[in-house]
Write a structure and sequence with these properties.
GO molecular function, one term: oxidoreductase activity
Strand content: 15-25%
Order of helices and strands: EHEHHEHEHEH
Radius of gyration: 15 Å
CATH architecture: 3-Layer(aba) Sandwich
CATH superfamily: Flavodoxin domain
Organism: Sporomusa sphaeroides DSM 2875
Keywords: Flavoprotein, FMN, Oxidoreductase
Helix content: 25-40%
InterPro entries: Flavoprotein-like_sf, FMN_Rdtase-like_dom, ISF_SsuE-like
Number of strands: 5
EC number: 1.-.-.-
CATH class: Alpha Beta
Largest sheet: 5 strands, parallel
Structural class: alpha/beta
Shape: globular
Number of domains: 1
Distance between the termini: 10 Å
CATH topology: Rossmann fold
Length: 179
C-alpha cells in the first residue's frame, strides 16, 4: 500500500551530506511505490515559536512563515523522515526550530505514525547521534500514535560529498524501500 512520505532536510547547507542521505531515502521510498516529497529548510524562512499556544486552539500557528506551511504538510504525511547534520552532538538548530513550530499538530488528527532520522556527523563515533535521537524521541513521545521506526547514522563526513562512498547511502535506500 502506497504511503505519503514527507522528508524534511534540515541542513543549512544546500547539497550537504544529510540532504544527500535524504535523497537516497526518497529514492528507495519511490522505488517501493510511495509518494514522496522532500522539503529542504536551507532556503526557508522559519521563525522561533513564541510560546503563545494559540495553535492549541486553532491548530495553526500565528506566525505565517514557511514553518506553518511545512507543519500542514506534516499533518497529512503518513511517514516523516528528518535528515540532519549533527552539530555539537545534537540535531541542527533548524531541525529543533521546526520541531518546536510543529506544535499545532499536537491537538490535531495527524496522519503520521512512522518517524525516521537520517543523520550525518563529522565525528567518527556513531554515539555522536545519540543526542539527536534523544531530542527527536522527546518530540515523538508527545504524539501517542507515533514511533521512531529507524535511524541511519553516517559518520566521518564533513565536507560536501564526503558521504558518496559511505554505506549509509545504501542503508537509507533500503530503509526507504521497507516503509
Amino acid at each position: 500500500m502506497s504511503k505519503k512520505v514527507l522528508i524534511i532536510s534540515t541542513s543549512p547547507r544546500k547539497g550537504g551530506n544529510s540532504e544527500t542521505l535524504a535523497k537516497e531515502f526518497a529514492n528507495g521510498a519511490e522505488a517501493a511505490g510511495h509518494k514522496v516529497e522532500i522539503v529542504c529548510l536551507h532556503d526557508k524562512t522559519i521563525g522561533f515559536c513564541i510560546g503563545c499556544f494559540a495553535c492549541q486552539k486553532t491548530q495553526r500557528c500565528v506566525i505565517h512563515d514557511d514553518a506553518d506551511i511545512i507543519a500542514q504538510k506534516m499533518l497529512t504525511a503518513e511517514v516523516i523522515a528528518f535528515a540532519t547534520p549533527i552539530y555539537f552532538y545534537e540535531m541542527s538548530g533548524q531541525m529543533k526550530t521546526m520541531l518546536d513550530r510543529s506544535n499545532p499538530l499536537f491537538p490535531a488528527d495527524y496522519a503520521f505514525r512512522d518517524i525516521y532520522l537520517l543523520a550525518t556527523a563529522a565525528e567518527d563515533e556513531e554515539s555522536a547521534m545519540d543526542g539527536a535521537i534523544k531530542g527527536l524521541t522527546g518530540w515523538i513521545d508527545c504524539f501517542a500514535k507515533t514511533s521512531l521506526k529507524g535511524v541511519v547514522r553516517s559518520i566521518g563526513v564533513t565536507d560536501v560529498g564526503d558521504i558518496a562512498e559511505k554505506p549509509a547511502l545504501q542503508e537509507a535506500y533500503v530503509l526507504g524501500t521497507a516503509l
